[in-house]
Design a protein that fits this description.
This protein has 353 residues and is mostly beta strands. The chain has helices at 2-21, 104-114, 168-171; strands at 37-39, 44-47, 56-62, 74-80, 90-95, 99-103, 122-131, 139-140, 144-149, 160-162, 184-187, 194-201, 205-207, 209-210, 219-224, 227-230, 236-238, 241-248, 253-258, 261-264, 276-277, 279-281, 286-293, 296-302, 305-311, 320-321, 326-328, 332-339, 347-352. It has 3 helices and 29 strands. The protein is elongated. It comes from Sinomicrobium weinanense.
C-alpha cells in the first residue's frame, strides 16, 4: 500500500510540472514586476565639464525585474526627449546588474547623440528596459526626468584681435582708428591667448589692440616695457615698417619685429649665401619680385637671417615657419608673391612668365 501511494503521488507531481511547463521543453516565463529606478531621483540635474570627463557623473540604480523564474536578466538604460516615447533612444549602457555607473564623458556623448545644445540646460527622460529574450515581453520602468548641460566636443574656433590706429588710411586699411577695418591678429591652434599677424605702418603711428571689431568690448593699451593694460593704458606707438606682431592676452605682453623679406636658395642668383630682396606692395598687401630662377629650391627669409624663415611642408602653397624648401622644377623668369596679410594663413605663388 505504501509503495502504491508513493507512485500515485509521484505521478500527480509530474502532472503538475508538465502543466506548468506547457508543451515546451522549458518552463513558461511570465513578465511580472517591472524595474523601478531608485537613484538618481527624478529632477536631478548635471552640469558637465570636459576637465571632469573621466569622473563619474552618477550611478543609476533600480530594483530587480521579476520574470517569475530564475534566469539572467539583461538591462538597457535608455535616454530620450520627453514626449518622444523612446522611439529613437540613446543607450546610456547595458548590464546584467541592477546598477550602472555613468561617466561624465559617457553622459555627454549621450547628450551629443540626442543633439543637445552645448552649454544649455535640456530636460531628457531616462528609463530601464529589462529583457530575457527577444521571444518574451520586456519589462520597462517608469521614466525619470533629468536635466543636462553638456559641453562641446568640437575644437574651439580661432580668436582674433584687431589693430586700429592712426596708420590705417595711409597703409590701405580703411579709416584711421576704425577697428572694423583694421588688420587682425589670429590665435594659435594650441593657445587661445597667443596671437600673431603682420601689419604695415607707412609712417610713425599710434595704435591699440581690441578684442572685437568695435570699441567698448576690451581694449589693450600700453603698460610699459612690452606689457599691456586691459581697458587702460595710453596708445601704443611704432615707427614705420612692416611688423610681425605677437600678443599674449593672458600674460598681457606683446612683441613687434620689423621685417623685410627676400628669396634665398640655390635657384636664386645669390644661392644659399645671399637673399634677393622683395618689395612690399601696399595696394595688394603682398611682397613681390620678378626674377630669373634656376632649377633648384628656394625659401623666404626675413631680415637676411635664418631666425625667421618660411617654407612649404606640403607643397600646397601654404607657408610654415622653418619648414621644407620650395622646389623650382625648371629655369625661367618668374614672378614670386609672398602674402602674409591673412594672419597665420600665410601663402605664396611662383608663376612662370
Amino acid at each position: 500500500m505504501r509503495t502504491t501511494s508513493f507512485i500515485t503521488a509521484l505521478a500527480f507531481s509530474a502532472g503538475l510540472f508538465w502543466a506548468c511547463s506547457g508543451d515546451d521543453d522549458g518552463p513558461v516565463i511570465t513578465a511580472s514586476d517591472k524595474p523601478v529606478i531608485t537613484a538618481p531621483t527624478s529632477g536631478s540635474s548635471y552640469i558637465l565639464m570636459e576637465e571632469n570627463a573621466d569622473q563619474q557623473a552618477d550611478r543609476f540604480v533600480w530594483n530587480k525585474a521579476n520574470f517569475n523564474v530564475p534566469t539572467q536578466i539583461n538591462y538597457s538604460l535608455q535616454a530620450d526627449f520627453p514626449g518622444n516615447d523612446f522611439q529613437s533612444p540613446a543607450i546610456l549602457g547595458e548590464t546584467t546588474a541592477t546598477q550602472l555607473a555613468v561617466s561624465v564623458e559617457h553622459l555627454n556623448n549621450t547628450a551629443t547623440t540626442l543633439g543637445l545644445t552645448p552649454d544649455e540646460a535640456t530636460a531628457i527622460e531616462v528609463r530601464v528596459v529589462a529583457s530575457v529574450s527577444d521571444d518574451f515581453d520586456k519589462l520597462i520602468s517608469e521614466a525619470i526626468n533629468i536635466s543636462i548641460v553638456p559641453y562641446s566636443t568640437e575644437a574651439p574656433g580661432p580668436s582674433y584681435l584687431w589693430v586700429p590706429g592712426s596708420y590705417q588710411a595711409a597703409g590701405g586699411y580703411g579709416s584711421d582708428w576704425s577697428p572694423a577695418e583694421a588688420p587682425q591678429l589670429k590665435s594659435s591652434a594650441t593657445s587661445a591667448s597667443e596671437f600673431e599677424g603682420y601689419v604695415y605702418f607707412a609712417g610713425d603711428a599710434e595704435y591699440k589692440f581690441t578684442a572685437a571689431p568695435e570699441w567698448g568690448n576690451g581694449e589693450y593699451g600700453d603698460g610699459g616695457s612690452g606689457t599691456l593694460l586691459l581697458n587702460d593704458g595710453a596708445n601704443l606707438s611704432v615707427s614705420a615698417g612692416y611688423y610681425r606682431i605677437q600678443v599674449d592676452t593672458e600674460a598681457l605682453t606683446y612683441d613687434l619685429l620689423d621685417t623685410s623679406w627676400g628669396v634665398i636658395g640655390d635657384a636664386t642668383p645669390g644661392g644659399w649665401d645671399a637673399d634677393t630682396d622683395m618689395a612690399y606692395n601696399a595696394e595688394s598687401k603682398t611682397w613681390t619680385i620678378t626674377m630669373d630662377l634656376q632649377a633648384g629650391e628656394i625659401k623666404f627669409r626675413a631680415n637676411d637671417s635664418w631666425d625667421l624663415n618660411l617654407g612649404d611642408d606640403g607643397a600646397d602653397g601654404s607657408l610654415e615657419e622653418g619648414s621644407a624648401n620650395i622646389a623650382i622644377a625648371e629655369a625661367g623668369n618668374y614672378t614670386i608673391v609672398l602674402d602674409l596679410s591673412n594672419p597665420r594663413e600665410y601663402n605664396y605663388a611662383v608663376s612662370a612668365n
